[in-house]
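Task: sequence design from structure.
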């Protein structure tokens, strides 16, 4: 296993060791029909599955008992080791079933979908949840990461604009649904923020390229979420679908919570799957900062976005190097097919170039600009 330093598990979880509180109320009523735990009276069907027959038999029976119809096919998305699969009925109905081992996260995701979808938020409809299996609408279209991989600059800007607009709509829907205070608080622990800041220096030590000192206390105070609001948090392009009309819908809500709305903008724009173009990114920041600022001044919002963006790039880069250490760079087509982390040289360097550009625009992290450029060059030797 790689020993390259990464804090990404703690980063995406939004906490270090303090347990977060999830919803713990009764089972969610779905479409006026509560899930049943009664054994089915219908005769058992003999079916032939291409893989994982015992799992597929149980899941098919569960879907039929609670949603009706006859399931004829189950397809594993991104490989049969993944927890999500596509369920296809004889009638042509299609849904996505997810098996969540983290029960708190599963209940959080189910509750969030249950409250957001009636508010016309761009999220899938929840069909069924029993505490561990979640069945939801199958969104039609292409993943945003796939679209961005082949997009020219104008198309890229259009796609990112649509994605940002959809996140704004979700924030507004969450406020109407009362979710701001209903979801767990993310990234508020002092150690969590300090570890997030220190990732830059831990990477520098591992690469033998020491990072310059930073004003940790000032950065901590800027990142401290004093006005927590509902956020997608894991708002990366791999968790979004683009339909034929160009609308963006978001799925995979197990990591959502309450923090600064600007974090969703940062997670999207600073992902390694997003082509780097300084002009495009600055144009999008100019257009969308007012909608994500949540009452903060544009100056304060821009400062937050620059600092959070630089640190997010460092977090993603640390995860990429952790996954790669000792091995070859990964195949891009396989990454897209399975929604893997972007362990390729162009994507790793893209994070460095973006972080360098964003850092030069904010005095508290400006010293990192030459450091990221040096790291980008060093990556070619790995």
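Answer:
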């Amino acid at each position: 296993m790689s020993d390259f330093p990464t804090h990404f598990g703690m980063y995406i979880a939004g906490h270090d060791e303090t347990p977060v509180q999830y919803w713990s109320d009764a089972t969610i009523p779905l479409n006026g029909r509560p899930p049943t735990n009664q054994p089915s009276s219908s005769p058992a069907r003999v079916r032939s599955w291409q893989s994982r027959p015992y799992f597929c038999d149980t899941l098919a029976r569960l879907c039929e008992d609670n949603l009706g119809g006859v399931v004829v096919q189950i397809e594993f998305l991104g490989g049969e080791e993944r927890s999500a699969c596509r369920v296809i009925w004889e009638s042509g109905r299609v849904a996505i079933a997810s098996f969540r081992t983290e029960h708190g996260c599963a209940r959080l995701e189910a509750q969030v979908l249950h409250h957001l979808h009636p508010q016309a938020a761009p999220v899938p409809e929840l069909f069924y949840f029993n505490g561990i299996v979640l069945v939801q609408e199958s969104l039609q279209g292409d993943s945003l990461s796939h679209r961005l991989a082949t997009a020219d600059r104008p198309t890229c800007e259009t796609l990112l604009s649509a994605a940002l607009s959809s996140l704004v709509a979700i924030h507004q829907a969450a406020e109407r649904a009362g979710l701001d205070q209903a979801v767990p608080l993310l990234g508020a622990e002092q150690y969590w923020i300090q570890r997030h800041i220190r990732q830059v220096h831990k990477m520098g030590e591992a690469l033998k390229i020491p990072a310059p000192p930073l004003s940790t206390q000032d950065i901590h105070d800027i990142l401290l979420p004093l006005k927590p609001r509902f956020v997608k948090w894991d708002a990366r392009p791999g968790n979004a679908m683009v339909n034929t009309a160009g609308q963006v819908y978001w799925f995979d809500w197990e990591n959502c919570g309450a923090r600064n709305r600007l974090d969703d903008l940062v997670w999207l724009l600073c992902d390694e799957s997003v082509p780097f173009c300084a002009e495009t990114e600055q144009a999008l920041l100019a257009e969308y900062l007012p909608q994500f600022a949540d009452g903060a001044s544009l100056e304060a919002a821009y400062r937050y976005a620059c600092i959070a963006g630089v640190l997010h790039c460092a977090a993603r880069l640390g995860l990429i190097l952790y996954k790669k250490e000792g091995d070859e760079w990964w195949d891009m087509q396989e990454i897209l097919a399975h929604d893997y982390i972007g362990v390729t040289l162009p994507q790793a360097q893209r994070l460095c170039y973006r972080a360098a550009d964003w850092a030069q625009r904010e005095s508290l992290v400006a010293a990192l600009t030459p450091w990221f450029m040096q790291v980008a060059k060093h990556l070619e030797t790995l």
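The longest helix spans residues 298-324.
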